[in-house]
Design brief:
This protein is α/β, with parallel strands linked by helices and 506 residues long. Helix content is 39%, strand content 20%. The chain has 3 domains: 213 residues, 3-Layer(aba) Sandwich (Aldehyde Dehydrogenase, Chain A, domain 1), CATH 3.40.605.10; 191 residues, Aldehyde Dehydrogenase, Chain A, domain 2, CATH 3.40.309; 32 residues, no CATH class. Strand 1 and strand 2 form a beta hairpin. Belongs to the aldehyde dehydrogenase family.
Length: 506
């Protein structure tokens, strides 16, 4: 599969499950990116002038195309990413629902807002705020979700009236090119959505030319994006790394706890910013939890993706990530941890690491402090919820966390003490499908949110309008200043807001 781009610098795309090259894409130069952004800027004006219903109709065409081509898209995601078929289907479900959600909600969330002031100094003024598209939004997507976290972020930006230039990961660019084909075949306005392929230099060129950057990726790269955006004085939204924790309380249903834990840790091969990467279990249920968890881990099927149900954990998509996973597991084992299941990489073809369950872990180990991004799960025994809370918050990351327990009042109280942008109770990751619920990280896990009202408003500029409906020839505060007028103003302030000015102004 190729993108049909002109010859020049080319990037090979491999299948992580087989090692076979499945396509080539061009590496866009800074000049080519600038041209794409210029085209997008011209197209954006007409797109922004469309009413909400017209943009919603284009979204409806896109949704129908997405569902009509679901098998082709699924195959493409699996081929370039190496994930299980079920994990690829989740990406399609997300984008179909995102098309529907933002088409319906954009008008309400971006509507003009009347402002009322209690100040007597603005009596008679009509005031309101309005949302204006930023212009061209640059979306820089990650390799772990080539549809969901790439084109998925373009949807609300487009719904807000922006044009979008998407730079997918050079490791998984083929799915993004399918979306560019979708736009063409659905007769969307030309250049309102474009894809530029390439590696780091192409991404830097996007940041250097667009009006807003939506970046999903590592904290290290996110800092560079934020720094460059700051130099240009353009806003950015960053979803970065995570070391998401899950706490199992003593009153939890262990069956539910184990199922949520495995799904949170191993879906998408553990290659999610929101993957469960560390678990803390209250001592009274630790042994029973580990026994059941080990039994379920032994049932997990890892390998080359096939038909539905044939594989639970696919390949390691990003080649250097395999080294990170191996390092974290070996570091833990060298410091006294035990691997109850797995613990090794698997010889090729393809890149695989065994689903791995680690116990006897502590916070001196990399697997409990640094982002692993793989099919591993360290589990630690804690005396009580207070110890779990301290350890959960003992992290430079703060993306998501989960609690499993039966006492909802206790679980909610604990959740509100977690230093994380999102907390789920008796769930893990399911909040991502609730597009009305904001999702964003604290600390080194990022800036801004996706989803919710702010997930679309961030793609707009806020303009405030104040209109004097009954203007007089001259207001009392205007130049030339009149002492009597300002004495009246001071007396009025005293009456309204309390004493303190009297005697100091003459």
């Amino acid at each position: 599969m190729t993108d049909g781009s002109p010859t020049g610098a080319r990037i090979a795309v491999d299948n992580p499950a087989t090692g076979a090259v499945v396509g080539h894409v061009s590496e866009a130069s800074a000049e080519e990116v600038a041209h794409a952004v210029a085209r997008a800027r011209r197209a954006q004006k007409g797109w922004a002038e469309l009413d909400d219903r017209s943009r919603a109709e284009f979204f409806a065409r896109g949704r129908r195309w997405l569902l009509a081509h679901r098998q082709e898209i699924t195959d493409c995601i699996v081929e370039e990413n190496g994930k299980a078929v079920e994990d690829a289907i989740v990406e399609i479900v997300y984008c179909a629902s995102a098309f529907a959600y933002w088409a319906k909600q954009a008008r309400k969330l971006l509507a003009k807002t009347k402002i009322r002031s209690l100040s007597p100094f603005v009596l008679g003024r009509s005031m309101y705020t309005r949302r204006v598209p930023r212009g061209v939004v640059g979306v820089i997507g990650p390799w772990n979700n080539p549809l969901l976290n790439s084109f998925g972020d373009a949807i609300p930006a487009l719904a807000a009236g922006n044009a979008v230039v998407l730079k997918p990961s050079e490791h998984t660019p083929l799915t993004a090119l399918l979306m560019e084909r979708m736009v063409r075949e659905c007769d969307w306005p030309k250049d309102v959505f474009q894809v530029v392929t390439g590696a780091g230099a192409t991404g830097r060129a996007v940041v250097d030319t667009v009006d807003f950057v939506m970046f999903t990726g590592s904290t290290k790269t996110g800092r560079l994006v934020a720094a460059r955006a700051g130099e240009r004085l353009i806003p950015c939204s960053l979803e970065l790394g995570g070391k998401d924790a899950l706490v199992v309380l003593a009153d939890a249903s262990l069956e539910r706890a184990v199922n949520v834990t495995i799904q949170g840790a191993l879906s998408n091969g553990g290659q999610m910013c929101t993957s469960v990467e560390r678990v803390y279990v209250e001592e009274p249920v630790y042994d029973a939890f580990i026994t059941l968890l080990r039994e379920r881990f032994d049932q997990v099927i890892s390998g080359k993706p096939g038909a539905l149900g044939s594989t639970h954990v696919g390949a390691v998509t990003f080649p250097p990530q395999l080294t990170v996973i191996e390092d974290h597991v070996n570091d833990a084992l060298s410091k006294g941890a035990r691997a109850l299941v797995g613990g090794h990489s698997v010889k090729g073809p393809g890149r695989f690491f065994e689903p791995t369950l680690l116990v006897d872990v502590d916070h001196t180990m990399k697997c409990m402090r640094e982002e692993t991004f793989g099919p591993t799960l360290p589990v630690m025994k804690v005396a009580d919820a207070e110890e779990a809370l301290r350890l959960v918050n003992d992290s430079s990351y703060g993306l998501q966390a989960s609690i499993i327990g039966s006492d909802m009042k206790r679980a909610r109280a604990l959740a509100e003490r977690f230093e994380a942008g999102c907390v789920t109770i008796n769930d893990a990751q399911t909040n991502y499908m609730a597009l009305g619920l904001p999702m964003g990280g604290w600390k080194e896990s990022g800036l801004g949110v996706r989803h919710g009202a702010e997930g679309i408003r961030k793609y707009t500029r806020l303009q405030a309008i104040s209109a004097n409906r009954f203007p007089m020839r001259r207001d009392m505060h205007m130049i030339p200043y009149e002492p009597s007028a300002y004495r009246f103003i001071v007396r009025l302030v005293d009456v309204l807001y309390g004493s303190g000015l009297r005697g100091r102004t003459k």
